[in-house]
Every structure is written in structure tokens, then in C-alpha cells.
Specification:
This protein is of the alpha+beta class. The chain is about 25% helix and about 25% strand. The strands form 6 sheets. A 6-stranded mixed beta sheet has the order 6-7-8-14-12-13. Strands 1-2-5-3 form a 4-stranded mixed beta sheet. Bound molecules: flavin-adenine dinucleotide.
Length: about 325
């Protein structure tokens, strides 16, 4: 009965059962989700939120899974992924009827941009740069979606999403769609009010500035080259494992604790960048979690600094 209702809300072929989360995380780790659903529109997702609330079914939202460590036992209840490729439509009316806003909609008017939560940040950065807009170049190499990015207030190279956000379309835990000013989202370093409230980002309105397309694209290429040089992009990971502690760099602290290359099973501290925990092939979530705890303990003993994970743990531990 629950399955049929879920399929009715999301559309045929958009629900699967016992879906391996390793297929949906950049760590390539994670056991099965009981239900895995990929709604395409804000209204469909809001319906799923209401259904799960009514049935008291746990609901977890993900984007591209690029900041996640999912338990080997998987996730109970429903995992709802807001994904989508970039569908660029230049001549659309502003702010379509909210419930029909699909997660991959994206349009520009002047220096303002409206985009669905499922758009890959990298695609959004490149398309806005190519349109002669400046303000998202730093995000060209962040492998998340806009929704996950807003939830984490993702950033790099001195920029963060909070800098250009005007308002955000949220799905409240009761399934209501509301447009909220960015100033009310408590956006801070890798944090937002959604991390406490469980609200879901369905889309956003961004304010960029006029720029030069060639220059903006060149900056993206330059940032991406820096990433390739410094980060172990050849291995599955979830990016920086720890937040930057005030006054320090996590990677440097980990290196100074003698942990470069330290491994538990196939979970390893990257030798290229100690802030990254990588999967050498067959790492389990348990091994990664043990490695996180070991790093925290050793850095605490060595430097007296508490490292807080940036990676978010999901599922049944
Ligand atoms: C190689 C690599 C490099 C990276 N570099 C950077 C970097 O430079 N800067 C940076 O900030 N991050 C970086 N990251 C981490 C990651 O890409 C970001 O945190 C990104 O914003 C996560 O987006 P996502 O769509 O993958 O979210 P997910 O990983 O799927 O989810 C992250 C969290 O957000 C929640 N969530 C996801 N979508 C929504 C939504 N629509 N509404 C509400 N909650 C949601 C999830 O429940 C989860 O708690 C990197 C990761 C990798 C693998």
C-alpha cells in the first residue's frame, strides 16, 4: 500500500526497493535504502513528505551524496534523492507555479538566477559563467547539488553559497512549500538552519553580478586545476572529512599527528591531502567511521584541538 502510494506520487519507475546507497554516494559506500525515490518536481516531493509523515515512515533527503557516509546497514524508511540534469530554458516566465518547479529547472533574467535543487553545482557554475555572470566560479569543482550545497552552505576559495543567495524554496516537515529569505536561513560556515529543522531545499533564487564569460570560465578552469593538483580526486571520497577548526587547518593537524597514509582496512587518510579520507576500493562505512574517531582522538592528544566531521553520517549505525 505504502509502495503504491509512493509510486503514485513520484511516478512509475521512480521508486526502487533495497537500493544500494553505495551507488549514490561519492564514497561508493553504503548499504541499502528500504525505499529510494527520485521525484522530479517540488510538488511531488512535498506529497512524499506528507505521506511519510502520515505513515510515520522515516524520510532522508540526499542530493549527489558527495558529503555522506552511509552506514553498511543502510537506511531505514525512504531515501528521497533530488537529482536532475541541467535543463536550460532561457525564455521562461519568472518563478513558475511553485509546486510545478522541477528540480532541474534553471533560468536567468539579467543577473538573477532561479534554479532547482537538483542541479549539479558544477553545471550551474559553468552555465552562469558562460552567460557572462560572475559569483559562482568557486563552485565549479564542488561535486554536490545546489540543494545539498545550500544545506551545507558549501564553499571554496573564499566564496560560499550564502554570498549570492536571495531566497530559498523550502519544503517544511509538514509538506508546505514556502519561500524564505536567505537572511533567515542562519547560514554559517558549513551550516544552515535546515540542519536542525529538517526542511528540504527545493530551489533557490540567486543574485549574481555582471562579469566576463571568458574570464569566469578561465577562473573555473584554474580552480579545477588546483583541485586536481592538491586533492586525491582519483579515489572515491566525500571531500574534506573535517570542518576547519578556528585558527587551524584540519589537514595540517592530521599530518602533524603522523597520520598521513594511515589506514583501517581500505579506509585511508590520503597522502596527497590529509584532510581527505579515501576509499582504496573496498572500505566499509564502519572502517571510515573508526578512522574518523581515531583521527579525532590522535589530533586531540597531539594538538588539543577537537576536529568536527564535515561529512554527514546517515542511516542505521
Ligand atoms: C572531491 C570532493 C570535493 C569537495 N569539495 C568541496 C568544497 O570545495 N567545498 C564544500 O563546501 N564541499 C565540498 N565537498 C563536499 C560536498 O560536495 C558538499 O558538501 C556538497 O554541498 C554536498 O552536496 P550534495 O548534493 O552531494 O549533498 P549530499 O551529500 O547528498 O547531502 C549532504 C547533506 O545535505 C542534505 N541534503 C541534500 N540535499 C538536500 C536538500 N535539497 N534539502 C535539504 N537537505 C539536503 C543531506 O541530507 C545531507 O545531510 C566535496 C566533496 C568531494 C567528494
Amino acid at each position: 500500500m505504502f509502495l503504491e502510494e509512493l509510486e503514485m506520487l513520484a511516478g512509475a519507475g521512480r521508486v526502487s526497493r533495497q537500493e544500494p546507497m553505495a551507488l549514490h554516494t561519492t564514497f561508493q559506500i553504503g548499504g541499502p535504502a528500504d525505499y529510494y525515490v527520485t521525484p522530479q518536481k517540488a510538488g511531488e516531493a512535498a506529497g512524499i513528505v506528507r505521506l511519510c509523515q502520515r505513515e510515520q515512515m522515516p524520510l532522508t533527503v540526499i542530493g549527489n551524496g558527495s558529503n555522506l557516509l552511509v552506514s553498511d546497514k543502510g537506511v531505514r524508511g525512504v531515501v528521497m534523492a533530488l537529482e536532475g540534469s541541467l535543463a536550460f530554458r532561457e525564455n521562461r516566465a519568472l518563478l513558475p507555479k511553485r509546486a510545478s518547479w522541477s528540480f532541474y529547472d534553471f533560468f536567468i533574467k539579467g543577473t538573477q538566477v532561479w534554479a532547482g535543487a537538483g542541479i549539479p553545482l558544477s553545471a550551474l557554475a559553468v552555465r552562469t559563467a558562460a552567460a557572462g555572470l560572475s559569483g559562482l566560479e568557486y563552485a565549479g569543482g564542488i561535486p554536490g547539488t545546489l540543494g545539498g550545497g545550500i544545506m551545507m552552505n558549501a564553499g571554496a576559495y573564499g566564496g560560499e553559497l550564502a554570498d549570492c543567495l536571495k531566497e530559498v524554496l523550502l519544503i517544511r516537515p509538514d509538506g508546505e512549500l514556502v519561500l524564505v529569505a536567505a537572511a533567515d536561513l542562519k547560514l554559517g560556515y558549513r551550516t544552515s538552519r535546515m540542519q536542525q529543522t529538517g526542511e528540504i531545499v527545493a530551489g533557490a533564487h540567486l543574485q549574481l553580478s555582471e562579469g566576463d564569460a571568458e574570464q569566469a570560465l578561465a577562473r573555473i578552469r584554474e580552480f579545477n586545476a588546483r583541485r586536481r593538483e592538491k586533492q586525491p580526486l582519483e579515489y572515491p571520497s566525500a571531500g574534506s572529512a573535517f570542518k576547519r577548526p578556528e585558527g587551524y587547518f584540519a589537514g595540517k593537524l592530521i599530518q602533524e599527528a603522523g597520520l598521513s597514509g594511515f589506514r583501517i582496512g581500505d579506509a585511508q587518510i590520503s597522502e596527497k591531502h590529509c584532510g581527505f579520507l579515501i576509499n582504496r576500493g573496498a572500505a566499509t562505512a564502519t572502517q571510515v567511521r573508526e578512522l574518523i574517531q581515531e583521527v579525532q582522538a590522535r589530533v586531540w592528544n597531539q594538538a588539543g584541538v577537537r576536529l568536527e566531521p564535515e561529512i554527514r553520517l546517515l542511516g542505521d549505525w
